[in-house]
Amino acid sequence: MSQIPDSAAQEGADLVRDDTSQSIIGVLKQIDAAAGEDGLKVAAIVDQLDERAFGLLVLLLTLPCLVPGLPGAQIIAIPIFLLAVQMLIGRREPWLPGWFMRAHVKKSWISGIAEFADKRLRWGEALARPRLGFLASGFGERVVAFFMALAAITVMLPITNTIPSIALTLMCVGLIQRDGLFTLAGMAVALGWFTALGTLIAGLFFGAGFAVQLVNEHAPWLLEWMGR
Length: 228
Description:
The chain is mainly α. It is 69% helix and 2% strand.
């Protein structure tokens, strides 16, 4: 039995990994259909994902964080950060801690995500297509992963989680569909968010009125911690 040369095998693997024919929403609906009344463990959900597991898994975790002030968003951001770092270092398959993989996800939560994606992400599937591939694969993918890791860190902050989650969603769709325009848009949103946070932090440090008022409305404990 003849063996496939390493170069040919790698090329075949790349073709499989870059197959964008399967719908993002379709994958989420498959996961919803596979969940019984008791839901699924995270490990079972990961098993349902195709070769685009990194992007799909980060997207699956990010969608709930789009809800402003979502309780638990800070915890969800931890696995998002871990996955982004793994993409950054070039890992081929996603890894998550055993305790997280054993966690049980309710059926209502899974159905809610699938329904949300069906209603809110149709535009993404309609607009996204393979283009500007250098921004969604290879070194470009690692640059995107760096921005995703930073965005995940800001999701952990107490003020808001929505804006960095929008950036993450755009970048995920871009990676899944190999659309560099989407990844670029996501990085732009993330960069704008980082700039806004930097301005806010600088304003707090120097006692700027707008920064103190904003934090006082949304995170007064931060002012107490800073002694202001």
